[in-house]
Amino acid sequence: MPSGKKSRQQRRVAPPPVRSQHAAPSRRTLWLGAGGAAVVIVVIVLVVVLTGGSKKPFYASYAGLPGLQTGAPPWSRDMDTLAGRVPLLHLDALAQEALAFHIHQHLDVYVNGKHVTVPAGIGIDDNSFITELHTHSTDGVMHVESAVNRPYTLGQFFGEWGVKLTASCLGRYCTGVHWWVDGKAQTGDPAHLVLKPHQEIVVAVGKPPAKIPSSYTFPPGE
Questions:
Q1: Looking at the domain 79-205, which fold is it?
Q2: Full-model pTM
């Protein structure tokens, strides 16, 4: 069962076997006649299966997303309405973590210069399910733990959290959002950021912090 404490022994989800639709004689004929074309076909199929197919990121829409928090921070993980948001964010309710694709990022959030705690347990419904994108503690480390290697976005994470994130708004604050990755100022919609290993992500609205974090020391193994 999912919990706030991370299990180090997880069952990996194995890809389904690739089965040929041809009988053995036809497969051999294809091999000999096409100079190994059958091997190319099988390799392509395996790549699609192992990587989860599409490599296009999903950009979250907050229109109609249930349970968006409208108050001032601190913002809770809002577990009560999480199940209704997960499918709309193109995430899955898993029985346990799947570690075939396993990366981490660190997130700092500021409202009018004050640091906002990123709660533990975002993306986790206690004793029910865990999604591919979640937190285990209040240290701001985001965990991407998935059975397939596909892109995940910052907007999906904020959608799970129940906090609106666009180029203009962070939660109820719509005075323009500033954001940085590894200390470098960014433009555009922060919700569209594709999550990559060991990013230091800063999102701020209103007065920015006095110092922008540019890196984070991840624990060993992360």
A1: Ferric Hydroxamate Uptake Protein; Chain A, domain 1 (2.170.130)
A2: 0.77
